[in-house]
Design a protein that fits this description.
four-stranded antiparallel sheet; six-stranded mixed sheet; disordered C terminus; 10 helices; alpha/beta; Alpha-Beta Plaits; binds adenosine-5'-triphosphate; 27% strand
């Protein structure tokens, strides 16, 4: 039995369908990333899975329990940890009081260890907490009862890079212990680092579910080539060349630089390149950002304002019919 089972999950808020027939399983022991830009429908799926909102159609099972049955839901919830996108703790309570409350409800197996790792200021009232401190406290309350499944809604938002790294290492170690993780994100590098499988949601519909590796394979290679002379664009019009950029200025030792994503046959590409004098050639794995661009399409789908890792709010699908569309 999978940890989370979704079958045709649909949520219509009345103003639009936020989840439209979403079907996938999260297997036990895996880290499953749920990826999509703001407004894609990630939180709606999570809130439905946790029984906070009821589906318009379809079903959701959590650790084998039907989430629309209150008793079954409660049973499942005792064994899970949940970190919402903006944890809403009682503003007048101190961090310590919040921990005591959580401990009395769900149990406390490991808060000491977690406090050492994430270190929120426990003697302070929540209203004096920064966003990052709320997130740190949220991580402690999510894991302190040693759950078998955690559901995390954009878990690293508000954490500084050092803590993000610490969190990544922590999650990897937890997976080794058998924990199942379902987390939503619009931070692509995080998904790439952590996930076994990834589901991509766009406008409420699931676009794909696949191992992160095969997603990268399908996304092709990033090719940079530096030629002594400019390679005519027509020569590079071969199957699998996308987003070709040519720059004669920036190449420091003269010549021309061409950069493109390549999803075709590398041998066919090398055959074409044999006719030119190459000064340098590199073929690397395409950044996940490029993969995402292919799924979402359109200019400005990645805003680049945060190291190029984030996907801008309101990125829309163009469905250009290209061979990478799913
Ligand atoms: N309570 C609600 N009532 C009406 N519409 C809602 C409600 N909650 C969400 N929506 C809409 O449903 C769609 C999906 O929202 P959702 O919060 O699930 O997306 P998300 O992928 O989690 O986005 P984010 O990354 O910003 O949290 C959006 O268009 C949103 O405006």
């Amino acid at each position: 039995m999978a940890a989370i089972e979704l079958e045709g999950l649909t949520k219509d808020y009345g103003e639009g369908v936020a989840n439209d027939g979403v079907t996938f399983d999260v297997e036990r022991g895996e880290i499953f990333g749920y990826l999509g830009p703001n407004g894609a429908g990630k939180t709606t799926t999570i809130r439905t899975v946790l029984g906070f909102i009821s589906p318009t159609a379809g079903s959701a099972r959590l650790l084998g329990r039907d989430v629309t049955d209150e008793e079954q839901l409660l049973e499942a919830k005792r064994r899970i940890g949940y970190l919402p996108d903006s944890p809403a703790f009682d503003e007048t309570a101190t961090g310590q009081e919040i921990l005591d409350l959580h401990g009395s409800i769900k149990g406390d197996e490991r808060s000491a260890e977690l406090l050492e790792l994430f270190d929120p200021p426990l003697d302070r009232e929540i209203r004096a907490y920064s966003r990052g401190n709320v997130q740190k406290l949220g991580l402690v309350t999510t894991f302190m009862h040693d759950p078998e499944l955690v559901i995390l809604d954009e878990p690293t938002s508000g954490l500084d890079p050092l803590l993000q790294q610490r969190f990544t290492e922590f999650l990897r170690a937890e997976r080794e212990r058998g924990l199942t993780v379902f987390f939503s994100s619009h931070i692509l590098s995080e998904v790439r680092k952590l996930c076994d499988r990834v589901g991509i949601i766009r406008n409420g519909r699931l676009v794909t579910v696949e191992p992160v590796e095969s997603l990268l394979d399908r996304s092709g290679k990033l090719v940079r080539l530096h030629a002594a002379e400019s390679i005519p664009v027509q020569s590079l019009e071969i199957d699998g060349v996308h987003d070709l950029e040519t720059d004669s200025e920036s190449a420091s030792s003269g010549g021309t630089e061409h950069v493109f994503t390549f999803t075709g046959d590398v041998n066919a590409l090398l055959e074409v390149l044999r006719s030119y004098q190459l000064l340098d050639l590199s073929i690397e794995e395409a950044p996940l950002e490029d993969v995402f661009m292919r799924f979402y399409g359109g200019d400005g789908a990645a805003d680049g304002s945060d190291g190029g890792d984030r996907v801008a709010a309101g990125a829309t699908a163009t469905d250009d019919g290209g061979d990478d569309d799913v």
